[in-house]
Design brief:
three-stranded antiparallel sheet, DNA-binding, 105 residues, alpha+beta, elongated, homodimer, 3 strands
Chain lengths: 105, 105
Amino acid sequence: MTQLDQTFAALSDGTRRAIIEKLALGEASLSDLASPFDMSQTAVSKHVRVLSDAGLVSVTKRGRTRYCSLQAAPMKDATDWLTTYQTFWTGSFESLARHIEGKEH
Amino acid sequence: MTQLDQTFAALSDGTRRAIIEKLALGEASLSDLASPFDMSQTAVSKHVRVLSDAGLVSVTKRGRTRYCSLQAAPMKDATDWLTTYQTFWTGSFESLARHIEGKEH
DNA sequence: CTGTTACTGAACTTATTGGTTGACTAAATA
DNA sequence: TATTTAGTCAACCAATAAGTTCAGTAACAG
């Protein structure tokens, strides 16, 4: 699994995206993150582990509480990959073809 | 699985991203897509199936050949999700917090 | 008509995912 | 000190993913 693989895989689950959305508002503890969901805290803890393995979230322990916060870099890479091909999706196909062919020599 | 789940899951595999990169240059047959990879054509066919189930690629049959081409909409949704939170990653946290809180009333 | 090419489908294997429960450690509180 | 709270870890389960092989269909080429 490459970094990009892990990032997109982490984003492919609605629970994990909801966690990211909440963390975008600021740091949160694991129990804060878990409370809205209809699943065990262990399950949420596992989702956070997936996010942190992918480097999207960092976890720091203060007392008995773990605080989670977002990490920018890997998600920026995913955004960059998508926006490169966005050129195609928005219709300016020819310029993208030139862009990609340009990389190959 | 929601549409966004499927889109991100489809993008989480390097082989599938390579297929998308090739299709960004234009339509290609399944055998064209399969040839660069060190795996069976059946495996590549399955990857294309994942992409087409997610709506990222459309397949049309002409004669005995299947031609694949990119579909914009679902990937744009993924890009949109990411760029919403990009506001955070690029550092302008306060404005994102206002943006998200604004959606909730 | 015969052979080859372009695929699909079914059956199978192995690994990973997303969830559970129960037992545990560590920190705060009464 | 005793209890609750925050969280992890290990074991387990069912479902899915990513690959394989083999057999088959459909279309083109000789």
